Structures are given as structure tokens and as C-alpha cells.
């Protein structure tokens, strides 16, 4: 989470500097204290006044500006930073940082800070591919700097190429991941499943369920932000893929089983939040079934693989139980029969904790059978509560 974090946002002189306003706004909305440092060239593309109004903080443009609260002890800004983010990072700035040049405030902050430094380059595609730029990038990576690759698209020159500043959401996700590397799941490998599997009837139709995948995605993001290496095995959803996470897309229960079996080989914990279909058609029609041919369609269903029950290995297993009656009793039974370390149960008949809701009200039951009822929370808040338990179990 970014709430209460101090983010030094460096803005350099490229046309993409205008996008830094959106980044500063989103960081501020997330509760971060944003300290903007602009190079002289950056002020030619976007005014300091814009950034000051967004962040409600003074903007530093001159290392020797008498009115700046950082002017006398400029190293204090470097020490205050939880992270330094430079977006956009021009070829010139990358070169200067690689050489250790500190003749402006941004260079001084980077050289003086012990906080992680994240760069999001934006420039002409030929400049980015240039051997000199790539050597400078490699040098900074070797020093521990994090780079967010530019995207392919239309550039300021009008041509198409790889040089566009990446989207704000991806930059924020990277910041959260980098800050999470010092947290309680650093060095741990977590596998999360999400979404509802689809079992085909024919090339057009399938048997499915109403799972949105929101709980699983919230778990993946929470684990990522705590420093874990996260693999998200996801069935079809309408959600945007979380950054900083290895995403494996599947459709059927059998595909999910294969992906999970492979992913958990080096995992410390598996959180099985996906709604895996219990049944699948015994026979899948090779061609679309025509309504005029089959007025009454009868399907013979067979059970799908029971992924949790069949998995073996030295890792923590957390299950989820979406129930419509006898919620706790059914969850306890599942905990025992599937040999889980913990299970999270929720009553899907409540609209605020049912399918596609952004909130959840769950009961967490551990291996000893002890149950804890959580109040209504956002799914991200529920994910954090679950991760608190996982941290204690993985050691």
C-alpha cells in the first residue's frame, strides 16, 4: 500500500512529461506524500504550478532555490524518500545517472538516496535502442535500479515504435511491488487461482459459474505488495491483469489442474480462490449443436478433477468455500476432507459478499477448527487479513 509513503517523483524533459500529472494525482489519491523534482527541461513541457496544485506540496526545480524547504539540506529529500520514481526518464537523464552526475536536484537526490529508484523511460524508439542508451540502462540495472520498459505505439514524431511512457497503472503497480520487497513475504513464492472455469459443451457453449475473479486477483496483488513472487492461475475474467505477477491463463478445470501442479513445485503456499466447476460434459460436441436438430438437449455430466484433494507437496494449502447454506459447517467439512491448512468461507446469498461484489464478509477457519468472523470489508482488505495468516504459516 502507498498510504503514508513518501514518493519522490522526478520529471524530466520529454513530451511525455504531461503524463506525470496523472501519475502524481493517482499517487496522491492513494495516500502517498508526493515530492516532485523537475529538471529545467521538464518545466518547458509542464508547469510546476500544475504539479503543486495536484500534490499540495512545493515543487523543486532548482537545487539552490532559497524558498525551497529542501534547498539548504537537499540530502534530506533523498533520506525522506521511500522510493524515487523518474517518469518520464529521458535518454539524457539516464546517461547522467549512469555517469553519477549530480549537477541538478534530481541527480543529487538519486545519488544521495538509499531508497529504491524506479525509472520509466520515454523517448524516440531509435534513441532507446541506441547501444549507448542500452549500456547505460544495463549499468543502472546492475546498480539495482528498476526499469519499466516503454511501450510500443505512436510516438511524438508520428511514427510507430517502442518508446511511449508506460501507463500510470503499471508504474504504480511496480512501485507497490518494489516497496513490498522489504515486507513480510519477501523471498516467498505464492500461487493464487482465480475466476470460474469453463467446461465446453461444444465450440460455442460451456458450463460455467458466476465467479468474477475479484477475490483471487486481490489476493495476488496483496501477496505481490508484501514482496512475494506471485503466480496467478486465472480462468476467464473481465479484470485487468495485475502488474508484477506471473499470469497463467486457463479455461477448464483440467487446464487449471495442470497449471497449478506445475506452479506449486516451488511454492510456499497455494491459495485456491478459483471457482472450479464440479462437473463437465462427458462428451464435447465437435461442432456447434443446432437448436433445430436438438429440441431437447440432454447432457451427461462427469466430475472434474478435485485439484486441492489431489495436490501433494510441502506447501501451505488455503481453500475457499462459497456456500449458500450451512456455511461454516460445509467449510469445516471441506477443510478436513481436502486436508487444508486454512479455509475461507463466505455466504453467497448476501448481495454484499456474493458474486461480482467488491466487498466480502468471510469466516476464516484454521487447521485446529478455530473460526474467526470478519466484518464486511473490501476484497483487498479481506486479502490482507488472509495474508496476515499466510505469513504466520509460511514462517
Q: What is the total domain count?
A: 2
Low-confidence stretches: none
Q: In what order do the strands lie side by side in the largest sheet?
A: 12-11-8-13-16-17-19-20
Which percent range describes the beta-strand content?
A: 15-25%
Structural class: alpha/beta
Quickly count the helices: 13
Q: Tell me the CATH superfamily of the largest domain.
A: CoaB-like
The name CATH uses for the topology of the largest domain is Rossmann fold
What is the number of strand segments?
21
Instruction: Give a short account of the largest sheet.
Output: 8 strands, mixed
The whole-angstrom Rg is: 25 Å
Please tell me the overall pLDDT.
92
Residue share in helix: 25-40%
Can you walk me through this structure?
- This protein has 395 residues and is of the alpha/beta class.
- The protein has two domains: 6-180, Flavin prenyltransferase-like (Rossmann fold, 3-Layer(aba) Sandwich), CATH 3.40.50.1950; 189-394, Rossmann fold (3-Layer(aba) Sandwich).
- The protein has 13 helices and 21 strands.
- The strands form six sheets. It has an eight-stranded mixed β-sheet, sandwiched between helices. It has a five-stranded parallel β-sheet with strand order 2-1-3-4-5, sandwiched between helices.
- Helix 1 runs parallel beside helix 2, helix 1 packs across helix 8 and helix 4 (91-99) packs across helix 7.
- The relative contact order is 0.09.
- The model has no long low-confidence stretch (mean pLDDT 92).
Amino acid at each position: 500500500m502507498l498510504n503514508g509513503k513518501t514518493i519522490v517523483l522526478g520529471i524530466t524533459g520529454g513530451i511525455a512529461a504531461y503524463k506525470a500529472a496523472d501519475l502524481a494525482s493517482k499517487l496522491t489519491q492513494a495516500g502517498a506524500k508526493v515530492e516532485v523534482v523537475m529538471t529545467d527541461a521538464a518545466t518547458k513541457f509542464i508547469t510546476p504550478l500544475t504539479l503543486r496544485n495536484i500534490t499540495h506540496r512545493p515543487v523543486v526545480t532548482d537545487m539552490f532555490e532559497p524558498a525551497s524547504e529542501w534547498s539548504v539540506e537537499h540530502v534530506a529529500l533523498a533520506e525522506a524518500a521511500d522510493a524515487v520514481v523518474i517518469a518520464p526518464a529521458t535518454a539524457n537523464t539516464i546517461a547522467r545517472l549512469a555517469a553519477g552526475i549530480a549537477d541538478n536536484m534530481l541527480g543529487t537526490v538519486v545519488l544521495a538516496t538509499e531508497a529504491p529508484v524506479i525509472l520509466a523511460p520515454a523517448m524516440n524508439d531509435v534513441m532507446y535502442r541506441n547501444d549507448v542508451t542500452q549500456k547505460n540502462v544495463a549499468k543502472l540495472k546492475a546498480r539495482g535500479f528498476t526499469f519499466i520498459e516503454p511501450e510500443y505505439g505512436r510516438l511524438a514524431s508520428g511514427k510507430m515504435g517502442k518508446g511511449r511512457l508506460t501507463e500510470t497503472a503499471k508504474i504504480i503497480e511496480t512501485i507497490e511491488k518494489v516497496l513490498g520487497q522489504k515486507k513480510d513475504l519477501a523471498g516467498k513464492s505464492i500461487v493464487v487461482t482465480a475466476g470460474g472455469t469453463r467446461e465446453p459443451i461444444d465450440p460455442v457453449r460451456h458450463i460455467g459459474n458466476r465467479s468474477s475473479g475479484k477475490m483471487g486477483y486481490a489476493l495476488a496483488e496483496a501477496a505481490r505488495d508484501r514482496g512475494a513472487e506471485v503466480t496467478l492461475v486465472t480462468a476467464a475474467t473481465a479484470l485487468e491483469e495485475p502488474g508484477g505477477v506471473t499470469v497463467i491463463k486457463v479455461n477448464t478445470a483440467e487446464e487449471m489442474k495442470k497449471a497449478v501442479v506445475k506452479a506449486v513445485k516451488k511454492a510456499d503456499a497455494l491459495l485456491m480462490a478459483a471457482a472450479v466447476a464440479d462437473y463437465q460434459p462427458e462428451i464435447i460436441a465437435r461442432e456447434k449443436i443446432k437448436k433445430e436438430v436438438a429440441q431437447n438437449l440432454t447432457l451427461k455430466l462427469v466430475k472434474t478433477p478435485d485439484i486441492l484433494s489431489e495436490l501433494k507437496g510441502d506447501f501451505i494449502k488455503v481453500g475457499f468455500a462459497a456456500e449458500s447454506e450451512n456455511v461454516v459447517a460445509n467449510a469445516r467439512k471441506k477443510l478436513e476432507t481436502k486436508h487444508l491448512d486454512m479455509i475461507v468461507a463466505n455466504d453467497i446469498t448476501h448481495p454484499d459478499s456474493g458474486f461480482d461484489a467488491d466487498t466480502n464478509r468471510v469466516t476464516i477457519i484454521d487447521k485446529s477448527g478455530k473460526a474467526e468472523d470478519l466484518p464486511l470489508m473490501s476484497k483487498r482488505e479481506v486479502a490482507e487479513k488472509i495474508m496476515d495468516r499466510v505469513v504466520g504459516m509460511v514462517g
